[in-house]
Amino acid sequence: MTLDELNTMPDNWRVDRLEEFCDVLMGQSPPSATYNSAGDGLPFFQGRKDFGRKYPEKTLWCSDPTRVAREGDVLLSVRAPVGDVNVAIEKCCIGRGVSALSMKNRNNDFLYYLMQYNRQRLKQIFESEGTVFGCVNKDGLNTFEVAVPNDSLEQQAISKILSDLDEKIELNHRMIKTLESIAQALFKRWFVDFDFPDDRGRPYKSSGGKMVESDFGEIPEGWSYSLAGLVSTIGIGRTPPRKEHEWFSENSTDVRWVSIRDMGNVGVFVEKTAEYLTAEAVKRFNVFLVPDNTPLLSFKLTVGRVALTDGEMVTNEAIAYFLSKHECVTNYYLYLYLKAFDYQSLGSTSSIATAFNSDTVRKMPILLPSKKVANGFLSAVSRMFDLIKLKEKEIVALADIRDSLLPKIMTGEIRVNSGRLS
What we know:
Blueprint: H1 3-7, E1 13-17, H2 18-21, E2 22-26, E3 35-36, E4 42-45, E5 61-62, E6 68-69, E7 74-77, E8 85-87, E9 92-94, E10 98-103, H3 108-117, H4 119-126, H5 138-142, E11 145-149, H6 152-191, E12 211-214, E13 217-220, E14 224-227, H7 228-231, E15 232-236, E16 248-249, E17 255-258, E18 269-270, E19 275-277, H8 279-284, E20 295-298, E21 306-309, E22 314-315, E23 319-324, H9 331-340, H10 352-355, H11 358-362, E24 365-368, H12 371-410, E25 416-417, E26 420-421
Parallel strand pairs: 4-9, 17-22, 18-21
Antiparallel strand pairs: 1-11, 2-10, 3-5, 4-5, 6-9, 7-8, 7-10, 12-13, 14-24, 15-23, 16-19, 17-19, 20-21, 20-23, 25-26
Helix pairs in contact: 3-6, 6-12
């Protein structure tokens, strides 16, 4: 801790090493022969790549674990990048890229936010500048100093305020996932299985609706395929010269500039971006302002990430945007179509990432339904997407509140008493 931090210590708080109030278990990787993806044994988390927003994502299991974390333990990334934090929602195996922390009084919810607040300081101490090989050992964690309230009830009150915000965020994420899954299931039923409602409200294909041959298999009579570049104006974003720093910004009042990383885990709509372009850069380099609700597709290096814009924004050259010019290709239909598309079918080499380019995007086959079916589908899913957008905006607002409260609460600038701020 710095001298300034010590001098501003709130009443009834103390600076302590983690070992004084916390148990530290370092992970250890078991033999690779014990790994599996079939769910045999305990969930196995090897490092930061397994971390989610707050809880780790299960992709691997271990039948003979070496080091085991308990439900509720705080999981900390101890190999570069150091400092990312998750919470174990069940008993799990941890590899050498993870440590499990547990407060001796079991106020682990508080510990989670305590480590979130201190994550940047962990990075600064344990990651060597300019390298990705930083790591934390057990002694380093045990002797890491943090400021904590003496009163366990104050610890619980702090964690309750912050966890209530996180629980609301997670609830919104689950609702978004459910709504999108419903929209995707409806898309499959109408445009893959071709069981959209016929004139009598019956499932078209299952009820004997007439099908005709196309270059891509049977489709309903009156439907057709066209090229993406014919049914949409497809544009590619731009990047101003990186060496000229005046064009780039981290100010959210500037123009949002979408890159592939912004489409990695955004849900449906891109609301926030990691970087921004100044208005002058957008004008100087003639970067097209992509309208609201426009489908975006990543097509360089990472192929197949799909999102919709939330308001006007610009993109870099790895992102294609689709401006529909066909009455049967609505934005929501195209979003779901691009999400379901098999991009490997377009690859001309063993690596789709090297085979895919803007010409490939423009030559993608797009199924054109009848106008009646297209309008019916838009009517069926529009309210779902409106609610998804609303819930994603709520997530951003709640996360902003949580992130602004975290440093104030964790330094005692705002005191918490029985779950109330003061």
